[in-house]
Amino acid sequence: MTGKKGVSMSENIDTLIYTATFGVDAEKENARKSIYETALSMGIYPASIHDFYMARGKHQFEGFSVPAINVRMMSYNMARAIFQAANNLKVGALIFEIARSEIGYTDQRPAEFTTSILAAAIKENFVGPIFLQGDHYQFKLKKFLVEPQKEAQAIKDLIRESLEAHFYNIDIDASTLVDLTKTTISEQQKNNYEQTADLTVYIRNLEKELNLGPTVSVGGEIGEVGGKNSSPEELQAYLEGYQALLQAKGNFVGLSKVSVQTGTTHGGVVLPDGTLAKVKIDFDTLGIMSKECQTYGLGGAVQHGASTLPEEAFDNFPKKGTLEVHLATEFQNMTYDHPAFPKELKDKVHEYVKANCADEKKDGQTEEQFLYKTRKKAIGPFKKDCWDLSPEIQTEIRNKLVEKFTTLFNKLNVVNTKEIIAQVIHK
């Protein structure tokens, strides 16, 4: 595995990705370009999962749920762990994602995120399509109520930036705009499906403008995570309103999936001692809504906020036909709480959030609860400190993550999906 000038990319990639992340100006851009071109030359390429999800909607390739992993901290190291587990189990149905909020507090713009994932694939010799996803490109309700066009434009700008960075999978989250005070379910979902339809059209037009090639996989959402559980009736009202609007705008290609709320909370529910409460997911309703999605021509339903669930719960997702499962906080927890993670650095993280996130502490919240909920806000400020941890420490953390991803891939039944993905997704 060598670059154009005969340099061993396996040996050089650690230095190159560091420059691509922390370098300045031209050296950073050159490093990113080198990584991207090397990835393509090796058969590693960003792709859209749209066609595969359309096949799933027609009841092909059933029996597993695609893990969508939010890579927040030590991104190159964590992505290496994911690829190691994926290679060992021949996993191809796998998504790497980052949310609108995460882009901010982890200090990772889409181009940097893409480069980290591709560099990890190069390092681990993972060949094939890489699914990069913009997760929860979410409307902020307060801003939308004051200046709706400005808030919509902010998301459009992020979508353009993401597509230019080879994110060919975008999840639009206008579920924050659902108004439960309205009389009918359709009226409650109206702002949601209108904004999602508008952004879908925007994405389809960008596909042509940017000459992307693949049909971008677009996801919608009907229930804000941590809020009221979703119902099949809400899903129906949302999809009927959305599809009617999309057809009226020009019969554009629509959604490939819809995220629903069935009982989870991002990061889990933290008890006063800092441990996580057990959460009960309504798997039966999740299964019903996944089938309902397919009657509308979509791939199925998506479950958010699942990484902190007990391991025994994960077998239920493929059994109930869940299309995609989003996983994030547990991997952050495993990194922060790993015995090899330096205590001095962890103390600095805690000091930082106490000083800079004090206004986020809620009445009655213990310090353990507060630190658990806010320490993600330190990922960006301490990004370089984490990247600079010794190779030995990074290896220890990575090995533990490999174990976790191996378990999850088995539970979600995505083992041996490499060949299945290759049948549907082409460069």
UniProtKB/TrEMBL annotation:
One of its GO terms (biological process) is carbohydrate metabolic process. InterPro entries: Aldolase_TIM, Class_II_FBP_aldolase, FBA_II. It holds the Pfam family F_bP_aldolase. GO terms for molecular function: aldehyde-lyase activity; zinc ion binding. This is Aldolase. It comes from candidate division CPR3 bacterium GW2011_GWF2_35_18.
